[in-house]
Amino acid sequence: MTAWLAKVAHKKARAVQYVHSANHIQRWIDRRGSLSVKDIRPSTMEGFVKMRLEEGVRGETVQTDLAALKAALKWASKEEIIDFMPNVGDVDKELRSTAREIEYSQEQVAALLEAAARRFDRQQVHLFTMIMLSCHARVEAVMELDASQIVRGRILFNAQGRAQTSKRRPVVPVAPSLAPWLPGTGKVIVYRSQRKDGTIYERPTSSIKTSFRECLIDAGIVDSDGKAWGSPNSLRHTIHTYLQIVGVPQAQIDAAAGHVQDGGGTGKNYTHLRPEYLKEFIAAIENYWHEMDAFTSVHRSQVGPKIFDIKTGAVV
Question: Which residues fall within 8 angstroms of residue 231, CB to CB, at 6 or more apart?
Answer without folding.
Answer: 102, 209, 212, 213
